Structure formats: structure tokens, C-alpha cells
Amino acid sequence: MEQRKYLTEEEFARFLNVVRAEKDARERVRNVAIFTVMYWRGLRASEIGQLQLSNWRQKAGSLYVVRGKGSLSGEYLLSPAEARALKAWARERGAQPGPLFPSRNGKRIGRAMLHVLMLEYGERAGLPRNLRHCHVLKHSIGTHLIGKLDVKAVQDWLGHKDIKSTMVYTQFRSKDRDAASRQIYADAA
After folding, report:
1. Using CB atoms within 10 A of its CB, is residue 24 exposed (0-12), middle (13-18) or buried (19+)?
2. Could you state, in order of their start, the residue ranges of all structural domains in the chain?
3. How far is residue 118's CA from residue 76's CA, in Å, rounded to a whole number?
4. Which terminus has fewer CB within 10 Å in the chain: N or C?
5. Does 27 have pLDDT greater than 80?
6. Which tens digit of pLDDT belongs to each residue from 53-112?
7. E strand residue ranges, the chain
8. Do the Cβ atoms of 37 and 80 come closer than 8 Å?
9. Is there a contact between 44 and 137 (Cβ–Cβ < 8 Å)?
10. Which bin fits 3, alpha (ψ -120 to 50), beta or left (φ > 0)?
């Protein structure tokens, strides 16, 4: 039996609330920004670590994302949640050039640390064990968007070069399936 590979909207909200409860104020603000951006941009752990402060155009409300694994890079408008989280992080981080999300030693945050944080916060949020990894955030936004946008728009959002990569999410959710369900249920009421 295949297990679910994405967080529900409610699970992601619960996860982010746990991150917001981080005791260390600087880490709390940084980690909220990290996981908010990872989710909304559908980023891999390696991709979030490579972001530089110069990738963020605060006044334009956009972020230039360099994607790995043959995916397409590009500039994306930020969600209100990302903009708020990045502004809060900028107040803590300062304006010095370098990694957008530095670790304690000033270098970019690494995949291993992001994995540790995801495991820790995921456990506290009560996420299923198999969903306590960073890549689940990419699967989550892909699945959430596929119920709201057409497949081509989701492909662009996630930077997929090949539509087949995006089509995977249609097995979990579909804009047409959701619309059909609403129509049928309205008739049944």
C-alpha cells in the first residue's frame, strides 16, 4: 500500500505553529522564514541553503530561485506569508551580503541541519514518521496547488522542466475531481 507523500494544509499549519514556538528568538524567526519559503516555493533542502540575500528583491516582493536537478530557475512573486517571514528575518539577519539563511557559523544552512530541524519539529507537530523530511514540503505545495490551478501553472510554479513530474500530483488531487465532487454533493444535498 502506497503511503501519502504530502502534508495536508492542516498538518502544514500545525508544523509551522511548532516552528513558531521555537524558544531561541533568532532561530525561531529564521526557521519560520526557511520553512515558509521552502513550502511556498517548493524548494529542496539544498536549494534553500543556496539562496543568497541578493536573490530576494524586497521592494519588488520577489525571490529569484535557483533550482537543482535540472529544474527551471526563475523569479517568483512571494506570498504574503513569505514576505512577512522574510521581512522579520531581515530585521534579525541584517543587510550584509551572503547566504539568505546562514547557520550559526555564518555559512549557508546545510541539508543535514534542515533534516534535523524537520525531524524535530515534525515530531513535535505529530506528523506521521514518513512525512518528517524536507522534500515533503515540495510534495505538499504541489498537491495543494493542483487542486486550485491547472497543471501547466503548477509545473511553472515548481520549476518542473517536464510536465510528467507535475502530473504525479494529479493522482493525489485534481481541480476537476474537486469540482466534480462539489457538483455531485450539491445535487445530493
Report:
1. exposed
2. 9-188
3. 24
4. N
5. yes
6. 999 999 999 999 999 999 999 999 999 999 999 999 999 999 999 999 998 888 999 999
7. 56-57, 62-65, 74-77
8. no
9. no
10. beta
Q: Is 63 helix (H, G, I), strand (E, B) or coil?
A: strand
Within a 13 Å sphere around the CA of 110, how many CA atoms are in the beta-carbon half? 7
Residue 112 near residue 134, CB atoms below 8 Å: no
What is the pTM for the complete model shown? 0.93
Question: Which are the contacts of 24, defined by CB distance < 8 A and separation ≥ 6?
Answer: none
176-186 residue pLDDT tens: 888 888 888 98
- Please tell me the class of the 9-188 domain: mainly alpha
Going by C-beta distance under 8 Å and a sequence separation of 6 or more, which residues neighbour residue 95? 53
Q: Could you tell me if residue 137 is left (phi over 0), alpha (psi between -120 and 50 degrees) or otherwise beta?
A: alpha
pLDDT tens digits for range 10-24: 999 999 999 999 999
